[in-house]
């Protein structure tokens, strides 16, 4: 039986009910991340369908730019859906973002190629990618807020960290579906038309997730505010009108989220691009290496989220930033050396020995570990930082601006820097510098929020 808003105490919620909340939130969020990241996982293949084939490098960079456009759109989705989430409820916004994301992803499967409709093909791709970004801008803040408002104060890091695994699980799921389709259809058929199947699968997934989320209850904390007439009339205006709240959003952005964004995307997406496109390792090996690192590394998001309940959010997040700043260059250089020593080149593609594959998987697992340190506790930290009546907006705007502009564009910026400088390692200094900057700002200004009760005002 669900508690009424007046009775609700997040520190006394039955564990069965809490797991129902986590499961319902996580399943939908994994599917949304799958939808969002299937684009990045297939960027090297779909670039030749939607852009001219006479310059494969330019086509790939253009596809990464479209990939980045989805991230740039995330802050606008955060503003729009943050406002809806604070005014109309977490559940309503959950369903809306799910439908928008799933519908956009499904539609990508049916866009004609560049050879069929010319520039309309990349234009349609860009539009749908922007819609994906806006949907994700509303999704994460809602999921983190919803789970956090049910979680006990002393274990919020643990329970919200399950939401933190969804991005990596969505990425892993995208790789698994891609490899399955490639194996079933054959490499040539997959490159020609089979890449559309993972996008089309989204239509089925979104229907399943819709019915799971449809039966969710509204967050009791939000329901109580609505019943008492304490909801914000204009969450966006209120979030920025308060000097103290503006300061918290800026501190959260430059003292945590910017670094977290580049560390997560570099450790998973740029690592994939670096191995496949820059080091020329074959597509299947690249994705298997990344998949293995995600399987090993994903439980660490929950471990570090839980650990933050004991020793604090700040220490763990700052450790992740420091590790990235210190070890990215030697680790990416080590990957290059492994490919040089353990690779066998056939045409323009390099195939690795088993020893080389294992070594790359080990390095990529370290990269995922840095991401888990930076990302595991951040949902609990952000939710604890802002009051309930403007929480969705206050969390979503800085999170999606920093992740969209700095984190999501990291693969594009790093690849572009490597192309213009003709250096395999020039791109890695972009995430290194931002991780270092976030570490400095975070150490000086970031507050500790461990164990805080969720305030209404």
From TrEMBL:
Pfam families: Sugar_tr. Gene3D superfamilies: MFS general substrate transporter like domains. Residues 21-450 form the Major facilitator superfamily (MFS) profile domain. GO terms for molecular function: transmembrane transporter activity. It is found in: Cell membrane. InterPro entries: MFS_dom, MFS_sugar_transport-like, MFS_trans_sf, Sugar_transporter_CS. This is MFS transporter. The lineage of its organism: Bacteria, Pseudomonadati, Bacteroidota, Cytophagia, Cytophagales.
């Amino acid at each position: 039986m669900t508690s009424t808003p007046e009775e609700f105490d997040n520190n006394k919620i039955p564990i069965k009910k809490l797991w129902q909340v986590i499961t319902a939130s996580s399943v939908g969020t994994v599917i949304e991340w799958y939808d969002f990241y299937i684009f990045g996982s297939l960027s090297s293949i779909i670039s030749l369908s939607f852009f001219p084939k006479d310059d494969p490098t330019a086509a790939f960079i253009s596809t990464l730019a479209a990939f980045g456009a989805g991230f740039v759109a995330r802050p606008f989705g955060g503003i729009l859906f943050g406002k809806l989430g604070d005014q109309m409820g977490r559940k309503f916004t959950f369903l809306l973002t799910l439908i928008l994301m799933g519908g956009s992803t499904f539609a990508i499967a049916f866009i004609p190629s560049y050879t069929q409709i010319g520039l309309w093909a990349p234009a349609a791709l860009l539009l749908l990618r922007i819609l994906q970004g806006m949907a994700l801008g509303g999704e994460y803040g809602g999921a983190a807020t919803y789970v956090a408002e049910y979680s006990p104060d002393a274990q919020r890091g643990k329970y919200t960290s399950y939401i933190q695994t969804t991005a990596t699980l969505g990425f892993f799921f995208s790789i698994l579906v891609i490899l399955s389709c490639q194996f079933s259809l054959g490499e040539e058929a997959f490159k020609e038309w089979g890449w559309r199947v993972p996008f089309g699968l989204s239509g089925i997934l979104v229907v399943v997730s819709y019915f799971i989320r449809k039966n969710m209850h509204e967050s009791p904390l939000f329901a109580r505010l609505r019943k008492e007439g304490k909801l914000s009339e204009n969450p966006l205006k209120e979030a920025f009108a308060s000097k103290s709240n503006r300061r918290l959003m800026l501190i959260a952005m430059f003292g945590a989220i910017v670094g977290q964004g580049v560390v997560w995307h570099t450790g998973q997406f740029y690592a994939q691009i670096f191995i496949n496109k820059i080091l020329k390792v074959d597509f299947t090996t690249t994705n298997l290496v990344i998949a293995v690192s995600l399987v090993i590394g994903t439980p660490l998001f929950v471990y570090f989220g839980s650990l933050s309940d004991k020793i604090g959010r700040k220490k763990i997040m700052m450790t992740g930033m420091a590790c990235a700043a210190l070890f990215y260059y030697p680790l990416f250089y080590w990957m290059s050396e492994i490919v040089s020593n353990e690779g066998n080149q056939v045409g323009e593609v390099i195939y690795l020995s088993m020893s080389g594959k294992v070594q790359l998987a080990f390095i990529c697992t370290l990269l995922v570990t840095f991401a888990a340190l930076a990302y595991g506790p951040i949902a609990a930290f952000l939710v604890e930082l802002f009051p309930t009546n403007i929480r969705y907006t206050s969390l979503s705007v800085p999170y999606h601006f920093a992740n969209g502009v700095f984190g999501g564009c990291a693969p594009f910026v790093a690849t572009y820097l490597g192309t213009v400088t003709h250096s395999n390692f020039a791109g890695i200094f972009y995430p290194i510098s931002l991780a270092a900057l976030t570490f400095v700002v975070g150490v000086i200004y970031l507050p500790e929020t461990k164990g805080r009760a969720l305030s209404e005002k």
